[in-house]
Structures are given as structure tokens and as C-alpha cells.
What does this fold into?
Amino acid sequence: MFRQEPQTQHLLLISHHNSYRIAPYIQAAKKRGMQVTIASESRHSLVSEIASGLQVNFSDSESAIRSILQAHEKTPFHGILGSDDATVELAARIAGQLQLPHNPPQAARCSRRKDLARAELMLAGCPVPIHCLVDINMPPEKQMAGLPWPCVLKPLNMSASRGVIRVDNETAYLKAIEQLRPILATASGEFEQHHLLVEAYIDGIEIAYEGYLHRGRLHNITIFDKPDPLTGPYFEETIYVTPSNLDQALQKKIHDVVEKACRAYGLSTGAVHAECRIDAENQVWILEIASRTIGGDCARILDNENFSVEELAISLATGRPIDVSLPPQARGVMMIPIRQKGLLKRTEGLLAARQVSGIEKIDIAIPEGHELVPLPEGNQYLGYIFARGDTVQEVTQALRQAHNELRFITTPVIKIEGKPKESASI
It folds into this structure.
């Protein structure tokens, strides 16, 4: 472990005010004896760290940069971090101006725009599916010509598999385009609201890779196996387990493919999250390379008394890397999928689920009374189930058993459309 410097370090975390990542980053920074300033758009947050932080305008990046640089003159920052895909590019620009550890802004941008990412990877000779860009406002007939069936339609900058749809023929393609129009209308950016990435469907298993870059070299944290098949038409994530059951040669191949992709982007420092498919010939195909930590609460299964992914990200952003050592015990998490649309009335079976051998905890993330929206329109999970055991098979079985104990009672969503009638005059 590197020695703590005597000077109190000051971290700037750039984040949307409602990000679930803020709390673990604050906790990790305090554990390392650091001060934290949150830069967000919220002036009226109930979270004191956000309300007392910097208020910036994310839609005007030049103004946001000026505000942050002015704050730096008063109280210097020793590290700049973006909490998620939407803020990593801004963080990279500011860190570059302050000569702090950072990735090139263009590299950060590529890691959050699927079309730009595919172009860079293809030019570098990295294994990515055959793909093209389509404009949903143009006639579909010419754009469909020559598409590989089956193929997968993907919004350019959405997360959690939102809007990702597999189609097997022209009829399904046309239906999916209409289904995606209202989803794309909510995307950030005019170009992103009118364009989709279409790529060949890769049949095979899927894994998630977690690592970090230091001085341009990629270091492994872990590989998550995904035991549930992800074949579509929608691609809801469920179970992640580690350590991986893949043989060492294949794990080394995954590392090498991800490292080559990072070089193609120009990434050189910070956390790396990758999603890959492995076909029957053990070819590793890149689906995603993100310059951030793993999303959701999945990162919590990597926590121990000496390590969290947030601590790692902070240490790299401040130029003080820490040792990464994970316990050998098998661990896993299940992202509880939303299968039915409606208002969540109540959750049943929690006591029985928590009593399943190997289950550590179950967190229900969506409060009762809130609307549940399944894929492809939704981008949330009902919650998370965490488990540990001697083997990944035991962990996987415990997660499935606990999930089978849960029942989510919903009631239909009633929406009143149209203008209310005016009261008659008396």
C-alpha cells in the first residue's frame, strides 16, 4: 500500500445530483482522509454535500469549466472524477487543464458513445461485431439492405440495456424502430435522438471485465461470469458471479483484447469496465469499454476492509495507486429484473429469501408506490441480491433460490389523458 501524504487531499466529484454513486464516493474519500467537493446542477438538494458544493451547468460545458477552475484557484483540487458516463468527458477536460491524472477527453467521449467507440475499435483492428448507423427518420428499406439477421439495435448513449432489442428479420426490425422512437426521444443530444447503432448478434456467453489503467498498463480486478443466457429480444442483466470459471488462457485473452481496445481509445488511467461476448470458437468480441467503475450496486460484492472500486478510482485520479487484493471466496449479485409493468404495491417473501444459505443481504431499490417499467423502455432494477459461498455454483444457486422466494405485487398504472373538463358556471 502506498503511504498517505501528510497534506490533506481535495477531490472534485462531478456528478448529477441524483446519482447513486455519490454516497460511496464520499465514503471512500473520507476513508482515505480526503475532502470532497461535489459539482452538480442541484441548488436545492437535501444532501448537504451536494447543496454546499459547486453548482454548474452541464449543458454549457465551457461555463462549467470556468466555474470549476475558479473554485480551484481558491481551494486546489488534487483529483477530478466524473461519477458516470455522462460526466467523464467533462472531468477529463478539467483534469487535463489542471495537469492532474486524466484520460484524453476524446477517449472519454468515445467510451460513452457506442457509434464513436465502434469506429475507433474497428480502425484499430479490435474484434467488434459488424455494424452500421441508421437514421430512424429516413426510409428504412435502403437502410435494411444487407443487414445481418439476427442483429441488435442499440441507442447510442443509453445504459442498463435500455432500448437494446434483438431483431431476427425485416418485420421485427420495423416493429422495433417504432418501439424505439419514444425511447430515443429522451436521449441527451439531437443526433442521439435520431440515430441507432445496428450490429450483428453474436451468439455465445457474456462476461463483464473489471480492471484499471495505470500509466497505460491494464491491471485485472476480476471477471464476472453471467450464468443466465442473454439471447434477447431484450437483454436484462441478472446474475454476476466471480471468480470466473473460464480457463486461464481465455481470461488472458480477454485481458489482452480489452487492453488493445483501451489503447485504441487512447485511455491511459482510471477504472475500466468492459462487456464482452465469447463465441463457440473462443473469439472475444467487444460490446462495451467504459472508462468508469462497474455500474449499479454490483460493485459492492467487490468491497472488503482494504478495497472498494471507488477508493481505487480516487487513488488513480490523485496519482496514488493502491494495492488491489480481493478475497478468494466466491461472490455474486443478482440484479432483480422488472418483469411486469405497474405500480409496486408490496414485496413479499423477503424474510424467506434472506434466510437462504449463502445470502448476505437483499436491497429493494424501488420504493412501494413507484412505477415499474420493464425493458426496453426502463433502465432500472428492482433491487439487488448479494451472496457468498465456497464455489460460484453455490453462489449462483443461492441467488436463484432467493429470487424465487420473492414476489412483487403490482397494481395497474392508471393515466388520465386529455384536458380536464371545466366546471359548469353556476
Summary: The radius of gyration is 22 Å.
